[in-house]
Known about the structure:
The structure is a homodimer of 455-residue chains. Chain A is an alpha+beta fold.
Amino acid sequence: MSQHLQAALDYARQHEADFLAGLQEILSFGSISTSEEHLEEIEKTAQWVARRLERLGMENVAVMPTGGHPVVYAEWLGAPGKPTMLVYGHYDVQPVDPLDLWQTEPFTATLKGENLYARGASDMKGQVMACLNAIEAVTQTGKLPVNVKFLIEGEEEIGSPSLPAWIEANKQLLQADFCLNPDAGMLGKDHPTITYGLRGLASFELTVSGPDHDLHSGVFGGTVHNPAKALVELLAGMHDENNHITLPGYYDSVRPLSDDERAHLAKLPVGDNFIKQQTGVPEVWGETGYTSVERAGGRPTLEINGMISGFTGTGQKTIIPSSAMAKITCRLVPDQEPEQVYEQMKRYLDEKAPKTIRWDLKMYGGGRASISDIHKPWVTALEKAMETVWGTPPLFKREGGSVPVVGMMQSAMGMESVLTGFGLPDDNLHAPNEKTHLPTWYKGTETLIRFFFGL
Amino acid sequence: MSQHLQAALDYARQHEADFLAGLQEILSFGSISTSEEHLEEIEKTAQWVARRLERLGMENVAVMPTGGHPVVYAEWLGAPGKPTMLVYGHYDVQPVDPLDLWQTEPFTATLKGENLYARGASDMKGQVMACLNAIEAVTQTGKLPVNVKFLIEGEEEIGSPSLPAWIEANKQLLQADFCLNPDAGMLGKDHPTITYGLRGLASFELTVSGPDHDLHSGVFGGTVHNPAKALVELLAGMHDENNHITLPGYYDSVRPLSDDERAHLAKLPVGDNFIKQQTGVPEVWGETGYTSVERAGGRPTLEINGMISGFTGTGQKTIIPSSAMAKITCRLVPDQEPEQVYEQMKRYLDEKAPKTIRWDLKMYGGGRASISDIHKPWVTALEKAMETVWGTPPLFKREGGSVPVVGMMQSAMGMESVLTGFGLPDDNLHAPNEKTHLPTWYKGTETLIRFFFGL
């Protein structure tokens, strides 16, 4: 082992308390990107990240405007002949509702045993800080053995609407050999994981309306189509009895799972029991003909993310509500196109919606799925670093989540991403009581340090 | 015409402004009965009604406690040999949400043209005040030609949970020849109406739950049954393709409409176009094999009154919600029993709910439907009064709404109710911008005065 690597690893171990303090600091910002109310917190977080990158000796640090929330850019290119790595991250977080289910304040990072609880602790301020801490350990003990660029965006949780144009406009600036994207997680604390496939996303809001005001359910009940009823009929019909999605043409461009891949996925330690443990559901569910692992990574979905209509307070209110709304997202696999799915859903509604109601479909955004080559040198370097730290080789998996930026890097610059991360399946991503497991997080920093030296 | 009747009618005409001011006063109380927050307003309203009854010369006026909100009782029994009429009313009102759809403050009665806008203007503070004003006109110009008792409750909009026990305990006090219940409406401003049938009600809350927290729809999408999805499947299945309700045994005790009655109902001026005009729906809807009028009054329903699950704010949140809830009410016809319907819904859920989710069904309350004999003398008296005031005989209809107290009076005391009222179909009952049409309301007062003298 090089002296510098050893010094960097020692530095990281000695500064765990400082690293934790830094994480707590960035987690104190309520950088929720879904609504306008948090713009100031978004701006503060971007500035905080920029100052931190400057402190690490990064150059050309800039908080760069986009059409929406700013991107933090930084670079250090002092390692001629070495590869250049573009580190991707996002500093924005999901909303925190339902707030009453949080056991601690979402923006006051709270230590309980080995876990740190806060919105963004795992997704993904924790992962961004693991990268920054690894850089700090290396730069405080010598020179980086690799060239590095940073792209830390603020719109990931809303589907990165401003990023495609921004990347397009900054292609030259972003040139690199590969992208390190630590926005994917691990399959368990003893299972370091490299993700080679990601699902895409298409996101919708469907509103059904009928009467122009809420009606007395006694006076009009039985004579008009209840919009909540019409909505549930339309939603229920979007899957058949085998839990296949019924949007016309939905599976036409779905790339089938090969027998090889199915055999490989069968080895992952995430069977039905794992899912039951992680979620508390009484039984697993899904498309007939596929295992849970196959369904989670290799098959598309259609989910209701939220639904509202009429009176939902205490007691009863005997109305026929005038409208009903559902938020829907489809997770996509290669080679589905988000815009195609929008057309398929419109066709479904055109064909199925009755004349007794009106409907409106809004598309929020989307991104394509992606699949990467796992034999590239940077993948091998990460694989080795993980094996050293955990004493076991990483698992290779297809991830059910969506990281639209991976598709953007691919299509705009032909750049492949190596996807990893140190979050765990029970980190409560996008849910109350999000947390990160600190011993795993420290291992992540060590892994990244070793990775930099292995490139 | 008797001199006294003429004097009472003159008094009513001369005091229209005072009557309006009184109505505006009672409408200023936010006596919403569905939630605990409005207890003080409930109490204030009951006291206001009691003071008003005292001012009219009523005796033994009392705000009487029940298990829930108080009942206002009053009587005047100074007309020996004359019938005794029990006037039923309720001083509570529906909630006001969605508040942003109101064009005026719901508890600041606002005059616009011939209409007065406020929550309760039509349902039913307006009707209660029409009775009190009629009594005032008669007592200020002489002695009442009829004995009268008042029962004004505060829980009608939550299904009158405390009333059955209270009536049971006060049977002696409430003895009367018939009940005048002005909580039913008219079919149009030129169509005075007497309602001889009412639907009953059974009210439920159905919750479906799955994962013990909201899940990331990428990580777990395709492997667990989305509770919102499971709920919409269960709700959608509660009607078949003919819009028949599928709860097992639901129609077993439904009394069929006779051919005579169907012929009679066919004469009511409330066809499909009327419903489209009143509601703004593009097409009417309902059970195959019945007309709109038949469906509204003579057939049972199952309606979703409200629904909530997951994220419903601005933007998207890619979760699988941990639970989903729907509020459901069934409108019942003779001879359905609310508790039977509860058992039928439980059986439906037992049979249909998949093992992938958990469900919970709560029953809020209910009441039986009722049908009355339209040849009783008090019905004839009201019929004559209406014909005199409007110049046209009243229509006889079955009402789609539910007035549980009518069933209670029947079962506890064998007392029949004469149902009428001076609200119009476009009064926005239970909805934003509730209003009452003042010229019709004044005619209502005149009708009641003539009715008292005709008994």
